[in-house]
Amino acid sequence: MKKYLFITTIIISLFLLGSCDDNELLKYEGDEQTLIGFTLKEIDLKVDTDSSTDIQIEVNVSDLSSSDRTAVIAINTQLSSALPANYTLPTTNVIIPANSYTGTFTLTGYDDDNIDFVGKNVVFDLVSIEGGEVTKAFNRTIVTIVEVCPTANQCTLTIHFDGYSEEESWDIKDSTNMIVASNSYPAGVSSTVEEVCLPDGTYTFTIYDSYGDGLYDGVTTGTYELKFGNTVFASGSGNFGSSESTTFTK
Question: Does the model's pTM come out above 0.85?
Answer without folding.
Answer: no
